[in-house]
Amino acid sequence: MPRRGQRRPRLPLSDPTDPRGFHILVQRYLEHLRVKNYADSTVTNREVYLTYFVRWCSERGLTQPCQVTKPIVDRYARFLYHHRKANGEPLSIASQHKHLVPVRALFKWLTRSNLILYNPASELELPRMGHRLPKAVLTAEEADQVINQPDLEDPLGVRDRAILETFYSTGIRRFELINLKLYDLDVARGTLMVRQGKGKKDRMIPIGGRAIAWIDKYLVEVRPMLAFEPDEGFIFLTNEGEPFTPNRLTQLVRTYVDAADIGKRGACHLFRHTMATLMLEGGADTRFIQEMLGHAKLETTQIYTQVSIRKLKEIHDATHPGARLGRTVDQAEDEACDEPEPLSSLAAEDASVSTETPAESDDRGRDEVGR
Length: 371
Known about the structure:
It is built from 18 helices and three strands. By secondary structure, it is mainly α. Strands 1-2-3 form a three-stranded antiparallel sheet, with no helix packed on it.
């Protein structure tokens, strides 16, 4: 047992020779995911989060999945809740969720494969995810301001303008734009084929004429200077002639968003939110936007009905009496002076002016009827 202040020795994650140990069984589980054609990113992410769990178990002397019980899984969930990062901040609910989902999936597979007797994570309750809206959405004017930032005198500026136009017109994901090939763009039909999108699903979507014009300008004037043999056919290339990496593309787009100085932060996904919101405000049905974005469920797309505030704002301005800023105190006083007096005051005034007695009034009324 190390004394206080002494560094605890790092324990091995698992015995790589133990057929019942975490090391071998986790590798078998990851192989199962690859056989079932899970996306490479999904397999990589689950491996990362399972490594955290296996390390946590190893530090407590647990080297085999069969040693894990339900109270231990619940304890790990509480550990994630109380854990603090290097900057002192807790893990977000989304991060805790990402840590626990692979653990639950691992033990479910182990139980189905008869590698353990029971599933200790079968009753694990995941943290409830909050209903979060996109942090920022651009207006049409702000989007144009960002798109106009690249220097068109520079060949790379033409490439960057084509990238921004593609994001704005189609709302595709970052990795989907990176993987676009030359044969995916159909200029004659005005369509773009997104291959192997999220969930390894292909979809064909429309692309605007302005974006096509800038892509064509880039393909004719700039891309031949960037490509070299063997050319794999990716549309957008870096100055080294290679496809973009996700982080590099994010930094590129973020640079132009910051340079526009519109008071909003974001990168590639900012244009995805913007495209969906502007189409919805323009009258597009959510099912068409669902096809554009490649969402598996309509509920995911319906979040933009809450972001699209323009229609609700128009109704609020038209119906709420306090929505108009122009109605000042002086105007309210003038309007009060122009308002008609109550009927009770008019009746009192008429009563004070009239000098007829009730009998004289009745006689006059009978005379008018007789006429």
